[in-house]
Design brief:
Helix content is about 40%, strand content about 15%. It is built from 8 helices and 7 strands. The N terminus is likely disordered. The chain is an alpha/beta fold and about 230 residues long.
Length: about 230
């Protein structure tokens, strides 16, 4: 049996309050251990509901390559695919989520994702058009008492290696709405970045996929690099 799972199994969870405390302590422990060993690997989030979690398959690898070249990261060039409810989620300091359709988190998925995020993990959600109403509904399962808030343009995520004085750049046009960045803040810390009506993940894809002008693709990659850099530092 994995030594971390053995540690978890041997915890005494008779008292409900102590159960919650010890379980959260265990998740912090997992994140610390996994981050120490695997701090330079990232993942794409695999979810249920029928939505295409696997959309934009070249986006995260291309973002990784850009980050390794431009912001001095040493991320494994091949991202993992990780299920929302898996304890292996704690292996990764940042996970990426995208798609066009339905998303469903079970209660166990929501609890695992919440514990991951409050333990120091980070979630980047890129609306590939059609994700919005589903992800807002499901993130309420993760944080019932928190709401997505629009991220102000003076937030540090826009002022890492690259500066975005006007906030989130517009990458792809869907229905004429402006690009907006929403976040979930837990105890003052940004734990989830949600790009809406921007479609950063489309912009990260191989240039042969969408044939974006180089200037547009570069904006998407620079904003993505800022998100990675912010997640690694915070």
């Amino acid at each position: 049996m994995n030594k971390f799972m053995l540690f978890y199994k041997n915890l005494n969870f008779k008292d409900t309050y102590l159960y919650k405390k010890k379980k959260l302590l265990f998740f912090f422990f997992l994140l610390f251990i996994f981050s120490f060993n695997y701090a330079q690997q990232v993942a794409s989030l695999k979810y249920n509901g029928g939505g295409d979690w696997y959309a934009n398959p070249t986006s995260v690898p291309d973002l990784i390559a850009f980050c390794n070249k431009n912001i001095n990261t040493k991320i494994d060039e091949t991202p993992a695919n990780i299920e929302v409810g898996s304890l292996a989620l704690f292996n990764y300091p940042i996970v990426f989520m995208t798609g066009h359709g339905n998303v469903i988190f079970s209660d166990e998925d929501a609890e695992n994702l919440r514990n991951y995020l409050i333990s120091g993990g980070f979630l980047e959600i890129s609306d590939n058009y059609g994700l919005d109403k589903y992800i807002r509904r499901e993130m309420k399962k993760v944080f019932p008492n928190l709401e997505f808030q629009e991220i102000p343009i003076n937030h540090p995520i826009y002022h890492q290696t690259f500066t975005f004085e006007k906030g989130l750049p517009k990458i792809h046009e869907h229905n004429g709405k402006p690009a907006q960045a929403f976040g979930i803040f837990y105890k003052g810390r940004l734990v989830c970045f949600y790009d809406y009506e921007s479609d950063l993940s489309d912009g990260w894809e191989n240039k042969e996929v969408h044939h974006d002008p180089e200037e547009i693709r570069e904006k998407a990659l620079k904003m993505g690099a800022n998100i990675v850099e912010y997640a690694f530092k915070n």
